[in-house]
Design brief:
single chain; Aspartate Aminotransferase, domain 1; 2 domains; 7-stranded mixed beta sheet; 3-stranded antiparallel beta sheet; 12 strands; 42% helix; binds pyridoxal-5'-phosphate
Length: 378
Amino acid sequence: MATKIGLDHVQAIAPYVGGRPISEVAREYGLDESKIVKLASNENPLGIPESAKQAMLKVASELGRYPDSNGFELKQVLSNRLGVPEDWITLGNGSNDILELTARAVAHAGDAVVFSKHAFAVYPLATQAIGAKAIEVLADSNYGHDLPAMLRTIQSLGDQAKLVFIANPNNPTGSYLQPDAISSFITQVPPHVVIVLDEAYNEYLSPEQRYDAIAWVRTHSNLIVSRSFSKAYGLAGLRIGYGIAQPTLTDLLNRIRQPFNVNSLAQAAAIAALQDEAFLQKGYELNKAGYAQLTEAFERMKMPYLTSSGNFVLVKVGNDHHAGVRVNQELLKRGVIVRPVGNYGLPQWLRISIGLPQENAAFLDAFAQILKDEKVLA
Ligand SMILES: *Cc1c(COP(=O)(O)O)cnc(C)c1O
């Protein structure tokens, strides 16, 4: 008789599905790689900043050695930037690492972890990986987090609740939470429940939308704010992000992280990118213009979309439950890679990452062609 290996709760996990690689789509559809437009993973269309490339070249000759396990220099830069001591900062192999470390540090099998419907896919993954119970709270009428409902859920779970994830802005919906609503939520969540405020798209917020999350970290020892270098800073391939929390929580994460979880190239590139304000500004402006380009086109085409505060837009491509998959397929044939979001409970929608003007235009052209074909939209 075959011996059974593996844990049931691990067996039950649906693996993460990312945006499809350009090379794979080229092979499958017989297309020229250079003609493919990928708007599927919320990457920065400007690519990696030149400053980060130069910084990486400088440290390349040191790659025979292990990285600085404590990320001393990067933490110093972040500490100055954020106005918190170094021992409030955890570096992660992507901010994904921060989400997982937090889940592992504060919850185990049987505990409840709360997040919103249509929230980032890693929250259920990090929850299920530790055998905890995922409690998904219905979204509000705009597909955003319903913080009052999430609070009531947490309160009703009592001691069983250990962790709650909120994203601002959220991916894939792009929804934005008002600072007052977040502040009121944080104040009312019981102190034994750790709150992850995921700010992977923070740098794309407009000046009017900005708020001081670090001030909340100072007053709440159960709050951790996570940020990423993958999106606005253009370093997705290097895998680097960070978390900000008071020392007690930060110390817990430090105990369970891999000793060398952030590699030397990533640390050097992040330091350079943090100081490259021109790159960040250029990306911000490009994103704003691209958002206008896409959403104005959706208005003209009479295609419903969700207001987004990130570097991507959700557009509704049909009314039946196969619409997303079907239109995605048609876009792939035309060399345009976007992201179907059926796994987020949004099978009628597609998520379009905002690209360069010509990339957005290529997507819009293909999209308009497909919409003309009524058979596709059925
Ligand atoms: C992209 C993303 C992240 C994680 O990105 P990393 O590359 O791991 O830093 C975290 N949260 C949300 C909501 C995201 O969309």
